[in-house]
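TOPIC: backbone geometry
CONTENTS: sequence, structure tokens:
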Amino acid sequence: MHTRGLTGTMSFAGRVARPKAHPLDQRIGGFGGVEGLVTYLRDNNITHVVDATHPFAAQMSCNAIEACQRADVPLIALTRPPWLAQADDRWTHLSDIAAAVQALDGPQRQVMLAVGRMHLQEFAPNPQHFYLLRLIDPPSVLPPLPNHHVIIGRGPFTHEGDLALLQKHEIEVVVSKNAGGTAAYAKISAARELGLPVLMIDRPNIPPRREARSAQDVIDWLTGHEVTLRGV
């Protein structure tokens, strides 16, 4: 954006200790719900909002939709296409984290748990499993899972690397959010090659909104160029 003469501020929730560097101004932390976001938009004379949050950050996306409507500020969401099961995939679709916890209520297994550190506590009712955890930052608090191994890493990951990782830890099932995109897809393709089941947590429902699939589409929208967009 900065190369197109556009100015802006990138807002981070603060859940990652080392956010990637960007040329735009940055702020960290929440806005205080819809009311706080409306105030921020008005006080800072914001003319456009780009919602580039994680597909599972449903509350933030819903807040952005309502706040932009109230502040009369146009909004676009930069969204990753969700992953789609292929012929050899062994997916079980689940509605949310609670459903994944319930699905693991059974005999001990070797589990790759790829749901992010914010949800680890929710899997405490199933301490019988071995959990392979891949996190962006080292956990500040020991995960509430007696038998686990933590790997610190930030995507994109490779198919060969994740194939070796699953084999090394003798993983029997992968638990994943349907984040979409390419950076974290390697564990899904590796599970397919190994014939492993995947507990796939489907995306939460978001109210209708204007959506784009690429950063270029967002820039074209911001600069008033013709672009084909999804949603309304």
The first strand starts at residue 9 and ends at 12. The helical segments are 33-43, 58-71, 97-103, 159-168, 186-194, 215-222.
